[in-house]
Amino acid sequence: MTINRKLRWGFYACWIVSLASIAITLRLWGAAAVRAETDEIVFLTLAGVAWLLAASSLFPWFGLSLRDDVVERGNVAALAGLCGALVAIGLIYAGGGLGEGPAYSNNFFSAGLGTVALFVLWFLLEWGAKVSRSIVEDRDLASGIRLAAFLFAVGLVFGRAEAGDWHSAEATFRDFTRDGWPALVLGAVALVIEWLARPSRRRPFPNRVSHGALPACLYLALSGGWVWHLGAWEGMGR
Q1: How many C-beta atoms surround the C-beta of residue 146 within 10 A?
Q2: Is residue 44 part of a domain?
Q3: Kindly report the CA angle at 167 between 162 and 172, in degrees rounded to 5?
């Protein structure tokens, strides 16, 4: 097994983290009927596998490919971005299952709302700053770290925005908009940072700490602070 092929196991580890987070959140904070039956948790977790597979099949449309960039070219920056995207989708899917609801379709509607919103923000960031070019062509690890943290932060905000008891599709959309709007601020901040921190002729190899880890910490602090501000969702701890 080549070094490049070994890198993909990092992506598979993110699969384990994502599925574990889904199963644990369902067990702790899912609907009462789900928490009471192991079969329900297993079913929704397996549905999460399908959800993650479907979502990850779209990643190449945003310029990142596990096979082409990680396995064949050994691009660690691309691996970082892909892991951030996968875990973000896992957070959003898990958030859709938090709270009481009469049907599985409620979970899928909420998770679908967050997933679409994540891809829209990712598209806007890609369109405005060409992040995939910095990651794939320049192989800039700092760019990969920033993208991973941005997607994780957005996934955290959207996952929390979906959480709560089900009332109606209209109420879910309204609550999602009310609690998820800071993701737009994150997107604007990320766009400015990408313009300033991406590789250039004067700085072809940006510092991984100042241009990667520090912006990543900013994204995570902003999203974590907002989730802390929102506090418990409706039905939490019932």
Answers
A1: 34
A2: yes
A3: 30
pLDDT of amino acid 1: 45
d(CA 68, CA 217) in angstroms, rounded, equals 29
Specify if 237 maps to a domain: no
Residue 238, domain member (yes or no):
no
How far apart are the C-alpha atoms of 229 and 138, rounded to whole Å?
Answer: 38
- Whether 226 maps to a domain, the answer reads yes
Q: 142: part of which helix (H) or strand (E)?
A: helix 141-162
Place of tokens 């959800």: 51
Q: In this structure, are residues 41 and 34 in contact, taking their beta carbons and an 8 Å threshold? A: yes
Angle (nearest 5°) at CA 54 between 52 and 59 = 85
CA quadruple 151, 153, 154, 156: dihedral, nearest 10: 120
CA dihedral sign, ordered 116, 111, 212, 210: positive
Query: How confident is the prediction for the chain on average, in pLDDT?
Result: 93
* pLDDT tens profile 22-54: 999 999 999 888 998 899 999 999 999 999 999
Check: pTM over 0.90? Answer yes or no. Answer: yes
Quote the domain boundaries for residue 42. 3-230
Domain count, the chain: 1
Q: What is the mean pLDDT of residues 48-69?
A: 95
Cβ atoms within 10 A of the Cβ of 43, count? 14
